[in-house]
Amino acid sequence: MSYFLLSDVKDVILQPLIDQAIKEEVTSEIQSLARSKGVSPDYIPDITPFEVKMVAIAYACYRVATYQAGSGSSNNFSGQDQGDIFEKKARMYYREYQDRASSLTKELLMGVADEAQEYVVSMEIFRS
Question: Could you please report the per-residue DSSP string of 56-119?
Answer without folding.
Answer: HHHHHHHHHHHHHTTSS-EEEETTEEEEEHHHHHHHHHHHHHHHHHHT--HHHHHTPPPTT---
